[in-house]
DNA sequence: CGCGTTACAGACTGTTCGGTCTGTTTTGTA
DNA sequence: TACAAAACAGACCGAACAGTCTGTAACGCG
């Protein structure tokens, strides 16, 4: 089915994502997407019944990649150390390492930001996938924090779900900081700060007894 | 000049801000703003030569209020305690207290988010006011952190500018979390987490010597 | 090779958009 | 009260928009 290298549908999705990350979904016109992906009206509306359907497809694909990264990096962290507190710190350190690439690839932006402001997509339940992705991050991290809290007295008085969410919050906030100040290193430095803050809160693990 | 209660220009700005916070600037049409503020095409383009000029006015007004809040709350914190580390913690606690109101007033959103994605406004230097606001937060907080670092050994190895920026990052990230999960308490709980993280990092102040 | 189906191409359409223009009312001031 | 300037009202305009329609080329498969 693909005429050249990549299937048309994928080319449309790739270029639509690029344009949306750059200037937002509402400000990106269908004609622009078509032009950028060397496609046509016919091809576009063959693959996507409406612009909203493109949005849904974009968001779904993006959220899947997001959760996949969460899982992959957590497994890497688990392979590095056994102690759950250390795993969380290592998890953040891994993202810190690729912070600059994330910013470059995503043009200092996150698709979630565009779509939580889209009326159409929030009206039907399309933005639910964002909630699911957030919940995935929260669940996975909170589980580690609960395990860590058994040997880390500093965690016992803390809302561990909120603390888990703070990782997501740091990502989203850092995207905005990076974009607003045109500073690509913001993601890396904010993840580093998050790791240092967490390190201080975790403290030294206490032997049982 | 005002026919009824509030001047037309202010009514336009208020309603434009409401609509922009709700669904983004690009997705908010001039006609909508006019209808919401019971105004007319003539009135609108009398006060604002173009939609971009409305955007600039919105952004400027918003950033001014933002920096004003920074200054006001920092002064309150300074009135509560003399020690700079404690001042930072109290500063965050003050915002934590009104976290729910912030979310409600601003519909779980921040104008900065809409405008960092606007091509037109970023092309000319209009989004520079965002940078200035961010710098104001960074400067004011970093100054406190530097002072605090004299008696707080936990701060000596930390990038204090990045740590100062993390407050802004937490705000922006919390807005997105609150919007995406439809949870108005997210701002409050994230500010609380930030305060607890900072508290752990600051540690106990050491007497000189 | 025949043929239905999928994948495209691009002219076209109705609507909405930002912005203009002409005219009317209100207001500050002398 | 006269009058210029500011504040508004709303019909109007061309461009851009999302989406449609008709037609054609390529493929899968018997």
Class from helix and strand fractions of chain A: mainly alpha
How does the overall form of chain A come out from the CA principal axes?
Answer: elongated
The number of helical segments of chain A is 11
Write down the CATH topology of the largest domain in chain A: Tetracycline Repressor, domain 2
Radius of gyration of chain A from the CA trace?
Answer: 20 Å
Q: Percent of residues of chain A in beta strands?
A: under 5%
The greatest inter-chain interface is formed by: A-B, 48 and 48 residues
The CATH architecture assignment of the largest domain in chain A turns out to be Orthogonal Bundle
CATH level 1 class label of the largest domain in chain A: Mainly Alpha
Please give a structural write-up.
The structure is a homodimer of 209-residue chains. The first copy, chain A, is 73% helix and 0% strand. By secondary structure, chain A is an all-alpha fold. Chain A folds into two domains: 1-48, Homeodomain-like (Arc Repressor Mutant, subunit A); 55-202, Tetracycline Repressor, domain 2, CATH 1.10.357. In chain A, helix 6 crosses helix 11. The longest helix of chain A has 30 residues, at 51-80. Chain A is elongated, with a radius of gyration of 20 Å. The model of chain A has no long low-confidence stretch (mean pLDDT 96). Chain A binds a DNA duplex (30 and 30 nucleotides) through residues 1, 3, 8, 29-31, 39-43, 45-47, 49-51.
How would you summarize the topology of this molecule?
Two copies of one chain form a homodimer.
Chain A: H1 8-23, H2 30-36, H3 41-47, H4 51-80, H5 84-97, H6 99-105, H7 111-115, H8 119-123, H9 128-149, H10 160-181, H11 186-202
Helix pairs in contact in A: 1-2, 4-5, 4-9, 5-9, 5-11, 6-11, 9-10, 10-11
The structure holds a DNA duplex (30 and 30 nucleotides).
